[in-house]
Amino acid sequence: MALPSVGDKLTLLSTREDGEDNGGGTVTETSRLESCLDHSVGSITVHEVIKYTPSSLPAKHYDADTTEPISCGLQTLEELLSWKRSEANPFNVATVPLAPREPPLASCLRRTLVSHDMMGGYLDDRFAQGTNSETPYAFYHWNYIDIFNYFTHNLVTIPPAVWTNAAHKHAVVVLGTFITEWTEGAEVCEAFLRGEESYRAVADKLVQISHCYGFDGWLINIENTLSVSYADSLLHLNAVHNFILFLQPYYGLHLLVASLARSFVDQSL
Question: I need a labelling partner for 86 at 20 to 30 A (CA). Which of 7, 46, 64, 228 fits?
Answer without folding.
Answer: 64
